[in-house]
Amino acid sequence: MAAKINVYQGDQIGGCITVIATDKTKIVIDFGDHIGRFMEIPDDVDLYMGEVTFKVMLNIRRAIKDEVAVAKLTERFEMVRSLLWRERFRFV
Predict the structure, then answer these.
(1) Displacement of CA 47 from its chain's centroid (Å)
(2) What single DSSP character describes residue 37?
(3) pTM of full prediction above 0.90
(4) N or C: which end of the chain has fewer CB within 10 A?
């Protein structure tokens, strides 16, 4: 099974997206800062992020005043796994 690798926006700093795909699976790796589009990721997509990115997202969540938006973001956070340990993050 051969894999196809595509790099999008690789000629800029930030926002470099790499897609690794086979006939059955697709992995999308975003090496940039697209935090504003986090909620656009379909619910059935497994999410992994590093600890620093997760902390940034927590700070954004704390700054949001809309309770409905905070609830949706919190629900989405519960699906995120750590890149390092492949465990779910803990919320404090």
Answers:
(1) 5
(2) G
(3) no
(4) C
